[in-house]
Design a protein that fits this description.
Chain B: This is DUF1116 domain-containing protein. The complex is a heterodimer of chains A (about 500) and B (about 475). Chain A has about 500 residues and is α/β, with parallel strands linked by helices. Chain A contains 16 helices and 20 strands. The chains are: A alpha/beta (about 500), B alpha+beta (about 475).
Chain lengths: ~500, ~475
């Protein structure tokens, strides 16, 4: 198709050259237009038009020229569009109007905007988390770092930096905290009260705070330290700080410390510090022997289990003596088929997995695990269970590039189904963790898996025992009572707490 | 902490913020993204120097020096007389960070070849290019000599320069004369008409302007720029009002010095025919204000942004004479008829000194017509000016913007804020053809590339022993 060129002159119509360039660009974008130019008819501009192949135009410097080269129809459309656009009057409402809302990208901007901010909750990818924490501390904020995979030297850096400024750092790898009644990260809805918690373990803290709530008491503050705080390198900077802060808090009458086994020297420092306080301190160092730290007395009470530490704290808050930690309550034994021999634990809470392994050991069961406690076996292939196996599905081995199973329980449901399908499996033990941060509906998929597993086992002449613990409260968004009722309806034996569930499951295992 | 109302900044998972709000708490969730172009090492270095007292103190000093500078137009003289290093030397200055001849962009090579012929060091641009390649001629960034030039920024010893004196510090800054639009040396043109114009500017025009400028006995430039901002200029890509204001001051002095009528007529015609005549004066004024802020140890304030047609470079007060460089960002703009993106040279020139000083793109609210280059509205112009406040140490109360309720223009770019927010300084710019001599082919808006700023953050951290590799 051959091109034509046409122009139109608008006499004595001055327009700013920038506006005209914008119009030129709009015309040139029309399909079928090769070149378009809208200019004032100055000598130089007319020369430009000629050089651009837009032809000879006879116009004066005060005239506006629209010149177009292209297919016939396109040229007509372009001239029409130019005519419309040149006739347009500015609407006048393109002005600024209300001040545009400021986009807050950085901590500094947020504090400028609202100087009342006093805590930063950081859940960015691990490689950036320490940097955000340092910035927050410099701005005078306390910090909770939910992120994991923060290099240890950076953890030490931010904790020391915070100490110099009299600020608190919770984390890195701090999953839960309740500060002034507000849930931070994964946390349950518990009443406020007089028991304070400092936890190096997220689900451990959730278990203690929810049980305290269930027993009718409440939480003053639940502080997290992150899982590496009680290492020899970090030296419990955060736990010691949290301990002193709670001891000085008038609302806190009893303090609970919870951790997986700390480095021994660090544990000693923490216990010694606890003994100097006026407030009774319940200590739960899972898997550690209290005798190594001088045992009970001088304001310190050791508990073996998470639930036991909550029970002890509640008793102490009420001026009572902590009760003995109870063994498994009575339960109905299931008749397994010959060949059904093993306990299989499928956990979303790392500390629940850890505690279950310890209690199974008490019952003589040495399990394999992707996160084995001392005396247990490391699983060669985390995808394949062997013998008694107790898994933490929230461990890095399972969560690379996907959400934690407390957020998205599908991998837990699938693994549970796989374990139940193994003819050697007798007892399936699992946890359900409720609260803010956890899945809105943590059990619909789970119940479906249990239904399928039971149906298949029935067809194959097997009977399965499902034993569970639901960590949460009736005030949680997911409502613990409702969840427990649905599980029981599906034939699951729901224990009162994780320790009991583990003890029952171990006891049932042939 | 227990006695206070908890007020959380949520950095990361938005759901955590929602939970806090659902539970009745106060929370602000950031629109966070990885700082420092996602480099965790630089992000950590940045965090270590964020709010660092040494840097805060240094920035106070640097910013105060910038604010208290009083640029005054004092003289016109040949570059070879004004700039000591050029006296009697075959030295040619160019825009942007240092660059060797063989790596220079087309327009810069063209301008240098033109300058060599203009100086009489070679008979033709071709011979001039050979001479330039031979190593017989020295090249140096104008910035290294207190000078700045738009586009190629080429200044040779015989060219006249504006002399701007900072009355506070006594420091001097220079810029060449603006040749107008079309085929001009700064876009790499070096034909006979270009050289003829340069000769006239360096003789008749300079000789007429010198006594006139001297007669003014120090023309204060900050008030003039402030006035131009109220008249629709941002004194980078729009200088129509400022040129008029300058002429208003110059003309009586020019007449009073009694030049020949024909000379006066040619000078007046030349100045009135070029809306950008003031640009180079504006640039020298900005250079004077920013050199006043340079060299304060540990300061994170940017004192120069400039492009050599290949790289964009910045200098920072606390890191001495170092340049932090990266390839220039593309220009979002409009082209003259017959030209497009493929014809454009990379962003070029020292004129981003205006943005560095809080003008140009930073003052875009004063000159909404400029945003039309990118299809924007006056609201976009004010948004640009407002956004720049996120990355500056403060504002310059002398440069007020009517559209921001006469609020002051953002000034004193802090490299830390740029790296933390990811907001890149906005720059109004002309677009040169990539081939020498074609000239300007468009104009638009661009930004300063982030890698310059991340490098500067690393260097500042290093200066305090806080670089990413260092144990804190």
């Amino acid at each position: 198709m051959s091109s034509i060129r046409e122009h139109r002159i608008y006499p004595n119509r001055y327009q700013d050259s920038v506006a005209l360039m914008a119009l030129s660009a709009a015309l040139a974008e029309l399909p079928g237009v090769e070149t378009a130019s809208v200019v004032m008819g100055t000598g130089a501009n007319l020369d430009n038009l000629r050089e651009a192949g837009l032809g000879e135009v006879d116009a004066g410097p005060g005239d506006l020229v629209v010149a177009v080269l292209g297919e016939e129809e396109a040229v007509a459309r372009a001239l029409e569009l130019a005519d419309e656009r040149l006739a347009e009057q500015p609407s006048g409402d393109a002005g600024d109007g209300a001040v545009a809302r400021r986009t807050l990208r950085t901590l500094r901007q947020a504090v400028e905007e609202n100087p009342a901010h006093n805590l930063a909750l950081i859940s960015v990818p691990g490689p950036y988390a320490a940097a955000e924490a340092l910035k927050a501390l410099r701005l005078g904020l306390n910090v909770m770092v939910f992120s994991d995979n923060v290099p240890l030297d950076q953890e030490i850096e931010i904790k020391r930096f915070a100490e110099e400024r009299d600020l608190l750092v919770m984390g890195p790898d701090c999953g839960t905290a309740i500060v002034n009644g507000l849930p931070l990260g994964f946390a349950n809805v518990v009443r406020r009260g007089r028991i304070g918690v400092v936890g190096a373990s997220g689900t451990g803290t959730q278990e203690i705070t929810t049980r305290v709530h269930q027993l009718g008491e409440g939480i003053s503050q639940a502080l997290g330290t992150g899982g590496h705080d009680l290492s020899a390198e970090v030296g419990a900077i955060s736990m010691l700080r949290g301990l002193r802060a709670l001891a000085a808090d008038e609302e806190t009458d009893v303090i609970v410390l919870v951790s997986k086994p700390p480095a021994e020297t660090v544990a000693k420092t923490v216990v010694e510090e606890a003994r100097t306080l006026d407030v009774p301190v319940v200590i739960c160092f899972l898997g550690a022997d209290p005798a190594a730290f001088g045992g009970d007395g001088q304001g310190v009470h050791f508990a073996r289990t998470l639930a036991g530490s909550a029970d002890a704290a509640v008793a102490l808050a009420r001026g009572e003596t902590p009760p003995a930690e109870s063994a498994a309550p009575p339960y109905d034994q299931v008749r397994f088929a010959p060949g059904q021999r093993y306990l299989r634990g499928v956990f979303t809470g790392g500390t629940f997995c850890y505690e279950a392994q310890l209690l199974a050991q008490d019952a003589g069961i040495q399990a394999a695990s992707n996160t084995p406690v001392a005396g247990n076996l490391a699983l060669a292939d985390v995808r394949a269970s062997t013998g008694h196996t107790i898994l933490d599905l929230g461990d890095d081995a399972f969560t690379q590039g996907r959400p934690h199973p407390m957020i998205d329980p599908l991998p837990r449901d699938e693994r549970l189904l796989a374990e139940a399908a193994d003819p050697a499996t007798a007892v399936v033990l699992f946890d359900v963790v409720l609260g803010y941060g956890s899945a809105d509906d943590p059990i619909s998929g789970l119940l479906k898996a249990i239904g399928e597993a039971n149906a298949r086992a029935g067809r194959e002449g097997r009977a399965l025992a499902f034993v569970a613990h639901v960590c949460g409260t009736d005030d949680d968004p997911q409502d613990r009572s409702a969840v427990v009722a649905r599980l029981r309806e599906a034939g699951v034996l729901v224990a009162e707490n994780n320790a009991q569930a583990a003890a029952i499951a171990a006891g049932m295992t042939p | 902490m227990w006695s206070e109302h908890l007020d959380v900044v949520n950095v990361g998972l938005a759901g955590f913020g929602d939970n806090i709000r659902d539970a009745g708490g106060s929370v602000t969730t950031l629109d966070w993204r990885p700082p420092a172009l996602g480099d965790p090492g630089t992000a950590l270095a940045l965090a270590r120097i964020a709010g660092h007292p040494e840097i805060e103190r240094a920035n106070q000093v640097a910013f105060e020096r910038y604010l208290s500078a009083q640029p005054v137009l004092t003289d016109v003289m040949p570059a070879g007389e004004a700039i000591p290093a050029m006296a009697g030397e075959r030295l040619i200055l160019h825009s942007g960070p240092p660059i060797a001849w063989d790596r220079m962009a087309g327009p810069v090579k063209g301008a240098i070849a033109g300058a060599i012929v203009f100086e009489g060091w070679a008979p033709t641009p071709e011979k001039a290019a050979e001479l330039a390649a031979s190593g017989e001629i020295s090249f140096s960034p104008a910035h290294h000599h207190g000078a700045v030039g738009p586009m190629a920024g080429v200044i040779s010893p015989s060219m006249p320069v504006w002399v701007v004196r900072d009355a506070t510090s006594g420091r001097l800054a220079y810029s060449n004369f603006n040749e107008g639009l079309g085929k001009v040396l700064r876009f790499g043109a070096n034909g006979p008409e270009v050289l003829e114009r340069l000769r006239w500017m360096s003789t008749e025009l300079a000789q007429a302007l010198r006594p006139a400028v001297q007669r003014l006995d120090g023309l204060e430039l900050k008030p003039l720029i402030g006035q131009a901002l109220h008249m629709g200029d941002e004194v980078h890509n729009r200088n129509a009002a400022a040129t008029g204001l300058l002429l208003k001051r110059l003309l009586p002095a020019l007449i009073a010095t009694g030049p020949d009528n024909a000379v006066l007529s040619r000078a007046a015609e030349f100045i009135t025919g070029n809306d950008h005549f003031f640009l180079n004066v504006s640039m020298a004024a900005c250079k004077a204000m920013l050199d006043a802020a340079a060299g304060v140890p540990h300061s994170s304030m940017v004192t120069a942004m400039a492009r050599n047609g290949v790289n964009f470079g910045i200098r920072v007060s606390g890191t001495g004479d170092r340049w932090f460089q990266a390839p220039a960002n593309p220009v979002d703009g409009l082209f003259f008829p017959g030209y497009g993106v493929a014809d454009a040279a990379p962003d070029l020139g020292d004129s981003a000194i205006t943005e560095t000083a809080g003008l140009g793109g930073f003052a875009m609210a004063a000159s909404p017509a400029i945003v039309k280059f990118v299809g924007g509205t006056p609201a976009d112009a004010t948004a640009h000016s407002r956004r720049m406040r996120e990355i500056t140490l403060g504002v310059n109360p002398v440069f007020t913007l009517p559209a921001l309720d006469f609020g002051a223009s953002a000034a004193g770019i802090d490299v830390r804020s740029v790296v933390d927010t990811g907001i890149q300084p906005v720059i109004n710019t002309g677009i040169a053809h990539k081939e020498a001599g074609v000239g300007q082919i468009g104009a638009g808006v661009t930004t300063a590339p982030l890698p310059c700023f991340t490098q500067a953050v690393d260097a500042l951290a290093d200066g305090l022993g806080l670089a990413a590799g260092a144990a804190a």
